[in-house]
Amino acid sequence: MIRITSILFSVFCLTLTAQAEHIAITTPKTALVIHTQKGAMPQVLYYGARLSATDEAQIDVMSGYRQSVYPVYGLNSQGECALEVTHGDGSLATSLVLQSMETRHEENANITVLHLKDRVQPFFVDLYYKAYQAVDMIETWTEIRNDEKKPADLHQYASAYLPVRRGNVWLSTLYGSWANEGRVCEEPLQPGMKVITNRDGTRNSHTAHAELMLSLDGKPQENNGRVIGAALCYSGNYRLRIDTDDSDYHHLLMGICETGATYHLKKGETFRTPVVALTYSDEGLGGASRNFHKWGRKYRLMHGDKERKILLNSWEGVYFNITEEGMHQMMDDIAMMGGELFVMDDGWFGSKYQRNSDDAALGDWQTDTHKLPNGISALCDYAAKKGIKFGIWIEPEMTNTTSELYEQHPDWVLKAPGYEPERGRGGTQLVLDLANPKVQDFAFEVVDKLMTENPDIDYIKWDANMGIQNHGSQYLPKGEQSHTYIEYHRGFEKVCQRIREKYPDLTIQACASGGARANWGVLPWFDEFWVSDDTDALQRVYMQWGTSYFFPAIAMGSHIASSPNHQTFRTIPLKFRIDVAMSGRLGMEIQPKNMTEEEKTQAKKAIAEYKEIRPVVQFGDLYRLHSPYEKDGVASLMYVTETKDEAVFYWWKTETFCNQHLPRIRMAGLNPDRMYTIHELNRIDNKPLPFEGKQLSGRYLMDNGLEIPYTHNVDYNKLNAWSSRVLRLTAK
Ligand code: DGJ
Asked: I need a surface site. Which of 87, 240, 419, 603 has the fewest CB within 10 A?
């Protein structure tokens, strides 16, 4: 038996014998155990909590039924496959066996590679496992290499496969739509195939998400039960399959969606799949979420260790009506309220064609001098005078048919040969062909030119408002049209990489008609994403709840917007809107000039208070306490620092009836033996809460919670149907 521990790790190849052995790929609290034997397909024996040496030594015997680590199509392959190939000689059969294994230690992780080869063809598959040593996450991906005489066609090429023992296993996923992203769906796995897919082409998280959780002990619970979490780290089309067949296993396969994307693998070429990030927790959904958040902040999210600025975005305030005077006014207001950044959204550019609505000028990234006679640099200077930073909106992957760019480069758009292109937003939008290196240069230069001319720009909102509605690259050869989706994302990643090499400190938001780029594929280059174009505070409670399953608060743009809300037309008082926005990366999306002086004072106070709790929200551990999806009239969550010396508790009433009875919310994640002082933030009540300033033990708060009044104690003319609380807890 070969036991791999971190001590044994240095770069070395493991000598394999024909004898059966196993390897344990471990993180601090988890282990993936794989049975290995030279000349045979490796098999998954176990994935779960880290094992004791004795238990691990006996796992071969104990695990019973085994599953191929990467099932392939060809021989004895009646089930769902990870890989399906037509080889250069026309054969559809593949049978992989282990040739050798390699292990090495990188700065933060141990890497194990299983080198597999087809039994007949010179066709190779390397399975990679990167096990982080400070967080419970294993990243796994696959590299497929063809050394046959002719190209091989990859029809299926999943990133990873995992067998999950059958039982009362429940699936938690996110679904949604524009302005209704990140909705939670929970269902028991039933016999048959469950497929979650997205084929938008450019973005991928409006309708469904490339991440999921499997609760192994029945209906998902927040802080109890065993949970496997898996995220496909990719921004393009995906297909997640769970096949519950006649065996004792659910078969989980995750990877790029192969529809319209057969990949012709040339001789000597290696195809690398996107990463799947795999985690396990016995602390329920919450434990798995915390694992994703920790791993993300530490290793995947751009600037995951830096506090985010509090910003005002101009979109819902002025839409396309950008003027210099208007931008000055908004900067004055956000600076006065204590904000740190102003972001000028869509509408600032265009020369021959003006950007006054969504139907023109994308691609013409020259400042519209009618609107901004003194240019961007004057706005940056104005921001600096006000003591804030300046940010700007762009959409570099797109053009409009009404644009100078399209007039000059009609060959730069994605287009099906012989067809008039289907148009998107505004009836004129088209997607640029990022497979084309010239288009990649162009997209890079959009950022580079802006930054060279205006080095003080601190933040970019990178939008993407159209999917690939035209299958066809004018750049790729005829025989490689099925590579269009893949090459688009390779091109996109190259552009991001170049931008990050030159501008490592820039903050960049991934926006895509709202939350269509909430995925771990883009976050190595982006600091955050825009959760949704829906800024309605009530609906945000639901959307942010779901989004938090996989993404940390620091990455979730969450803005205070106006009332009535521009999407739902719901009227919600400022207090509730603030209390919801403050549970993510706080910002504002409002015309401050329409706010009353009282509201501005309220917002100013909230911004000051958010600054106090910002490290707890942005770096703390999330504990979801009561789900809005339970429909009990209340939702609640909290953040706790790693040292458990500070926490912030949120409570939102989601519906109001007379004489209703709301559940009392028990806290979580605190140190039972420490005393916490309670202080209410954003207080509007005439009288403090009964527990204001009181000290209570973590144990009491976790066993009993606090009795939160259902309404606010305010003057009669201020009474309304909404109620929410934010409590700061500080340990003695
Ligand atoms: C879609 C985004 O989601 C909005 O926030 C805004 O930036 C608009 N695009 C601008 O066109």
From this structure: 419
Nearest-atom index, ligand 1, CA of 393: 7
Q: Which amino acid is at 204?
A: N
**Gap from CA of 461 to ligand 1 centroid (Å):** 9
pLDDT at 600: 98
Ligand 1 in reach of 345 Cβ (< 6 A) = yes
Provide the 3-class DSSP secondary structure of residue 443.
helix
Is residue 533 predicted with pLDDT exceeding 80? Answer: yes
Sheet architecture: strand order including 263-265: 83-86, 152-157, 263-265
Report the length, in residues, of the chain.
Answer: 732
Q: Concatenated DSSP letters for 51-120? A: PPHHHHHTHHHHT-S-EESS-BSBSS--S--SEEEE-TTS---B-EEEEEEEEEEETTEEEEEEEEEESS
Query: Is the predicted pLDDT of residue 566 greater than 70, yes or no?
Result: yes
Tokens standing for 731?
A: 């340990």
* Per-residue CA distances from 210 to 84, 130, 250 (Å): 21, 20, 18
CB atoms under 10 Å from CB of 536, counted, come to 23
Task: Determine the Cα angle at 271 with ends 249 and 267, to 5°.
Answer: 125
So what's the pLDDT on residue 5?
Answer: 33
Residue 363 neighbours by CB distance under 10 Å: 27
> What is the average per-residue pLDDT within 502-517?
98
Contact 531, 556 (CB under 8 A): yes
The 3-state secondary structure of 372-431 reads CCCHHHHHHHHHHHHCCEEEEEECCCEEECCCHHHHHCHHHECCCCCCCCCCCHHHCEEE
584-642 pLDDT tens trace: 999 999 999 999 999 999 999 999 999 999 999 999 999 999 999 999 999 999 999 99
Q: Does the predicted model carry a pTM greater than 0.90? A: yes
Q: How far apart are the C-alpha atoms of 541 and 519, rounded to whole Å?
A: 19
In one letter, which amino acid is 564?
A: P
**Residue among 346, 392, 529 whose CB has most ligand 1 atoms within 8 A, to mutate:** 346
Answer yes or no: is the C-beta of 533 below 6 A from any ligand 1 atom.
yes
- What is the chain's alpha carbon radius of gyration, rounded to the nearest angstrom? 27
Closest CA to ligand 1's atom 9: 513
**Ligand 1 within 6 A of CB of 530:** yes
Q: In what order do the strands lie in the sheet with 21-26?
A: 21-26, 30-36, 43-49, 67-68
Longest dimension (CA), the chain: 83
**Measured distance CA(673)–CA(643) in Å, rounded:** 13
Residues 6+ apart with CB under 8 A from 720: 573
**Nearest protein Cα to ligand 1, atom 1:** 513
Say yes or no to pLDDT of 6 above 70: no
Question: Which of 181, 395, 530 maximizes ligand 1 atoms within 8 Å of its Cβ, making it the mutation to test the pocket?
Answer: 530
Q: Is the pLDDT of residue 10 over 50?
A: no
Residues of the chain above pLDDT 90, percent: 96
Q: Which residue has the tokens 């396309």?
A: 320
Closest to 559 measured CA to CA, from 317, 292, 235: 317
Q: Which DSSP symbol is given to 428?
A: T
